[in-house]
Amino acid sequence: MANPLAGEVAIAVNGERHVCKLTLGALAELEAGLGEGSLVGLVARFESGGYTGRDVMALIVAGLRGGGWQGTADDLLTADIEGGPLGAAQVAATLLVRAFSPVT
Q1: What letter would DSSP give residue 103?
Q2: How many Å apart are CA 47 and CA 103, to the nearest integer?
Q3: Is 7 exposed, middle or buried (0-12, 13-18, 19+ CB in 10 A)?
Q4: Residue 55's domain spans which residues?
Q5: Chain CA centroid to CA 37, Å
Q6: Does 16 fall in a domain?
Q7: Looking at the 3D structure of the chain, how many domains does it have?
Q8: 1-30, pLDDT tens digit by residue?
Q9: Residue 104 lies inside a defined structural domain of this protein
């Protein structure tokens, strides 16, 4: 079960539940993979609705890897993500919010 206070988000891939979390290492991998100068640009794209499928996929992969998953983006190309593209985008956006929200 995902712990929102720890920045975790649950996702079901091919019917199997996983925990996603944007750890520092996952964030660095995400930044490098997207070629983004900073994560602020990525956050801004999500806030404005200008994100791409590539952004969503990169966030999901980084979150899964931060949660301990050993797969790659290629493993998700034909995967069934619960909720489809919209569900994946919601998980991606939630990951960003939880990664950069202070826990009080």
Answers
A1: P
A2: 20
A3: buried
A4: 4-99
A5: 18
A6: yes
A7: 1
A8: 899 989 999 999 999 999 999 998 888 888
A9: no
